[in-house]
Design brief:
Blueprint: E1 6-12, H1 20-30, E2 35-41, H2 48-54, E3 59-62, H3 67-73, E4 76-77, H4 81-84, E5 89-93, E6 96-100, H5 103-110, E7 119-123, H6 127-138, E8 142-147, H7 154-158, E9 162-165, E10 176-179, H8 194-202, E11 206-209, H9 217-224, E12 228-230, H10 233-248, H11 254-264
Length: 279
């Protein structure tokens, strides 16, 4: 593993709530690596490649709303990210930006303690939903997508998924319900109408909210309906572990992973480094 002082960032907007820096920095400290990971408020996703190169960083994570722009601007896209058409990890190698999606395997690892799953309903149609849908498709699990509007459903239709808007949704049996929307993050909203969600939960076994660190209305309702439910902390952890392994070209042991998990439990540091408008 390299011992030189290397810099890593997470790009997003908003970004102040991100716990990725404390997760990655805890692992750098634990492994005695002279590296540092910081937040970067990026308002224009089309500048991500330019800024990545000008900041002289070794690697980065990308969060909403820039995962699709990051995919389009990468020099080389690796693995399942090509099908998802969204990336959340950049690594600089040989003066090229290699792009990956660790959300997909991170999600599968996060739900590995659920029982057998045959069918899934994903609420929302953004970059995270794409990653989850494609990961589940590779596992031969039936996936359907429900989104407020039809606009973002084109990707899923092209990939052969059954899709619904709020206006044409048909009730069905789903083992797992996934909330990939931001509903409940900074408010007490449900991702869809509460009565509809209650009906969906009636025949479901499991619920997963990609939001982490908050008992959202979605999770509370799932638990009240008797479902086994969990938030997005494990997904964040495992996608972070996979990203860290790509950053450092090493496999993490269980002890380091637990160090990262503990770091996620802390409140995020509010500092965000300069964005392009402050330069």
């Amino acid at each position: 593993m390299s011992q030189e002082n290397e810099k890593f960032l997470i790009f997003g907007n908003p970004i102040e709530h991100s716990k990725s820096p404390q997760m990655h920095n805890s692992a750098f400290d634990h492994l005695n690596l002279n590296s540092f990971y910081d937040k970067y408020l990026l308002t224009d996703g089309k500048k991500i490649k330019e800024i990545f190169n000008s900041e002289n960083i070794k690697g980065a994570n990308i969060t909403v709303p820039h995962k699709e722009d990051a995919f389009r601007l990468a020099d080389e896209v690796v693995g399942i990210a090509n099908e998802i058409e969204a990336v959340n990890t950049y690594v600089k190698k040989d003066d090229k930006i290699y792009a990956y999606n660790t959300d997909a395997p991170g999600f599968l690892k996060a739900i590995s303690d659920f029982g057998k799953i045959k069918s899934v309903l994903i609420l929302g149609a953004g970059g995270t939903a794409k990653a989850i849908a494609m990961a589940l498709k590779e596992e031969n699990i039936e996936v359907r997508i429900l989104n407020r509007s039809a606009e973002k459903l084109a990707f899923f239709k092209a990939q052969g998924f059954k899709t619904y808007t709020w206006g044409n949704f048909q009730m069905n049996h789903y083992d797992l319900i996934v909330n990939s929307t931001s509903a409940g993050l900074n408010n007490e909203d449900y991702p869809i109408k509460k009565t509809t969600l209650e009906s969906i939960f009636l025949n479901a076994k499991y619920a997963f909210d990609c939001i982490y660190g908050k008992d959202t209305p979605f999770l509370k309702l799932a638990q009240a309906e008797g479902l086994k439910a969990k938030d997005g902390e494990d997904m964040l952890l495992y996608q972070g572990v996979l990203a860290f392994e790509l950053f450092t070209d090493t496999l993490l042991d269980k002890e380091t992973i637990e160090v990262m998990r503990k770091a996620l439990k802390k409140d995020p540091v509010e500092d965000t480094i300069d964005n392009e408008e402050q330069k």
